[in-house]
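Page 37, continued from 36.
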C-alpha cells in the first residue's frame, strides 16, 4: 500500500504534462491524456492523497463553483428536455469535460509543477506555430502529414496552413498561447528575460490575423488583447493608489514627529530641526 502511495505521488503531475504536450498535436493523444488524468485524480481522492487544505483551497475558487453550478443546471435540464435522452446525455458529457480543469487543479499542487506543465505547452505550441510559418512559405516539412500539403489546402485565396488540427482549433490555441507568453513574461529565465515572450506574442498575433484562416480566432485574439490592456491599466491604477496611500502615511508620520518635537522643552513650535554638517558655536554668556 505504501509503495502504491509513493508511486502515485511521483506520477501525480505526469498526466497533466502529457496533456500539455499533446494538446497542439493530436486529439487522440489528448483523449488518452484526459483518461489518465481522470484516473489519477480519482486515485488521489480515493487513496487519501488530497490534503484537506488543498481541497479547501479549491472550494474557495470561483472557477470550481461556476463549473459545478453549470454542470448541475445542465443535469437538471435533462429532466424536461425535448431532445432524445441519448442526444441530451451526449451534450451533457461534452460540457462535463470541464471537470478536467478541476482534476488538473487537484493533481498540480506546486508552483514548480504548474510552471513545468505551462513550459511544455508553450514549447509544443511554439513548434506548431513555426511549423505553420514554414508551411506558408511552401516548405513540405516531413513531420507534418502529407495530406496537409494537398492543392486543395495550400492553393488559392483560402489556404489552410494548420499543421495538425483544424484552423479553428489552432487559431484559438494560438490566441491562448499569446496571452500566456505575455502574462508569464516575468517567469522567463535570463539573459533575454522578457524579450522572448514579447516576440513570441507578436508572432502569435501575426499568425492569427495573417496566416491562419477563420474569424473566430481573430475575435478571440482581440478579446485577449483587450483584456490584457484592461488588466495592465487596472494594475497601474492599483499601484498609483498604493503610492498615494504610502505618501499620505509618510506625510502623516512626519506631522506626528513635528507635533511630538514641538512639545519638547526648548524647541520652537511648529519646526523640525534640520541636521547640517556645520557645528554649532557655543553661545557666550551675556554680561
Amino acid at each position: 500500500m505504501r509503495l502504491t502511495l509513493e508511486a502515485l505521488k511521483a506520477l501525480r503531475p505526469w498526466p497533466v504534462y502529457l496533456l500539455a504536450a499533446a494538446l497542439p498535436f493530436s486529439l487522440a493523444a489528448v483523449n488518452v491524456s484526459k483518461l489518465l488524468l481522470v484516473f489519477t485524480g480519482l486515485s488521489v481522492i480515493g487513496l487519501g492523497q488530497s490534503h484537506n487544505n488543498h481541497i479547501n483551497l479549491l472550494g474557495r475558487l470561483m472557477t470550481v463553483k461556476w463549473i459545478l453550478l453549470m454542470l448541475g443546471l445542465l443535469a437538471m435540464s435533462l429532466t424536461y428536455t425535448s431532445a432524445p435522452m441519448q442526444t441530451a446525455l451526449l451534450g451533457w458529457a461534452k460540457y462535463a469535460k470541464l471537470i478536467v480543469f478541476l482534476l488538473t487543479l487537484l493533481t498540480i499542487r506546486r508552483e514548480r509543477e504548474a510552471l513545468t506543465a505551462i513550459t511544455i505547452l508553450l514549447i509544443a505550441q511554439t513548434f506548431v506555430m513555426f511549423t505553420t510559418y514554414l508551411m506558408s512559405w511552401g516548405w513540405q516539412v516531413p513531420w507534418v502529414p502529407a495530406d496537409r500539403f494537398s492543392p486543395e489546402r495550400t492553393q488559392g485565396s483560402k489556404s489552410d496552413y494548420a499543421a495538425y488540427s483544424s484552423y479553428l482549433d489552432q487559431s484559438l490555441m494560438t490566441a491562448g498561447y499569446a496571452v500566456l507568453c505575455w502574462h508569464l513574461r516575468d517567469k522567463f529565465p535570463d539573459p533575454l528575460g522578457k524579450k522572448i515572450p514579447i516576440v513570441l506574442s507578436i508572432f502569435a498575433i501575426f499568425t492569427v490575423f495573417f496566416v491562419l484562416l477563420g474569424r473566430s480566432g481573430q475575435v478571440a485574439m482581440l478579446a485577449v488583447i483587450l483584456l490584457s490592456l484592461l488588466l495592465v491599466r487596472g494594475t497601474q491604477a492599483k499601484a498609483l493608489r498604493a503610492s498615494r496611500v504610502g505618501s499620505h502615511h509618510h506625510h502623516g508620520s512626519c506631522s506626528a514627529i513635528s507635533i511630538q518635537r514641538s512639545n519638547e522643552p526648548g524647541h520652537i513650535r511648529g519646526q523640525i530641526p534640520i541636521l547640517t554638517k556645520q557645528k554649532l558655536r557655543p553661545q557666550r554668556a551675556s554680561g
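The chain is about 70% helix and 0% strand. Flag for discussion at group meeting. Confidence is low (pLDDT under 50) at residues 266-280.
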